[in-house]
């Protein structure tokens, strides 16, 4: 049967009919308008009536549509690229170096752009930068009074101290305090005291002109600060923080930040 199929596949390139009559198979090949029986070498006219007759008499009708005798190969056939290879290996060396250098420059540029955009996204926004510095008119604050302003979301105490308050702050033995700091270290001008209005214990806002020392008092846990904002009594561990500030040349404005 294998030999007959091989002869059939090599001889005829059209589709074939395989008809089984009893035990002995007969191979029929359709060639244009004729049907050829390979076993008996008989030639018949190829029409619908002949095909129907073969199918009705044998009971089995199969139409072969695909070639099955393709020779097997042990390994895939690889094309020969020898004509495309460079005659001298050093010929393409300059091009290789150029490509590597170009890719390196492009990669470095992309990395720099990525890092720059990432750092720019982490910088402060325009509204935050607008509040980075605050200007205060000093002429609007009378002597002996406090003013509270908002800076970077925190309250800031600004007190125009009297001469008696300045003298009291200087006479205090600051070396014995819990957080030793002289009044000169906490002020740039003795009459102006600038501090963050945040208690150093748990972040509460102290009350001005209150407490046992005439400065500030935190009613939450009982911390007392003197007229220089130094902790004198209570659970607070540190003095009130002094932010970065400066005065204008004419001393008319206070700039915080």
UniProtKB/TrEMBL annotation:
Membrane topology listed for this record: Single-pass membrane protein
Gene3D superfamilies: Rieske [2Fe-2S] iron-sulphur domain, Ubiquinol cytochrome reductase, transmembrane domain
Reaction catalyzed: a quinol + 2 Fe(III)-[cytochrome c](out) = a quinone + 2 Fe(II)-[cytochrome c](out) + 2 H(+)(out)
Record organism: Somion occarium
Protein keywords: 2Fe-2S, Disulfide bond, Electron transport, Iron, Iron-sulfur, Membrane, Metal-binding, Mitochondrion, Respiratory chain, Transmembrane, Transmembrane helix, Transport
N-terminal signal peptide: none
EC number, UniProt record: 7.1.1.8
SUPFAM superfamilies named among the record's database cross-references: ISP domain, ISP transmembrane anchor
Protein name in the entry: Cytochrome b-c1 complex subunit Rieske, mitochondrial
Subcellular location: Membrane; Mitochondrion inner membrane
EC top class named in words: translocase
Family per similarity comment: Belongs to the Rieske iron-sulfur protein family.
A Pfam family recorded for this sequence: UCR_TM
Cofactor section: [2Fe-2S] cluster
Cofactor annotation comment: Binds 1 [2Fe-2S] cluster per subunit.
Other notes: The Rieske protein is a high potential 2Fe-2S protein.
Domain Rieske intervals: 186-254
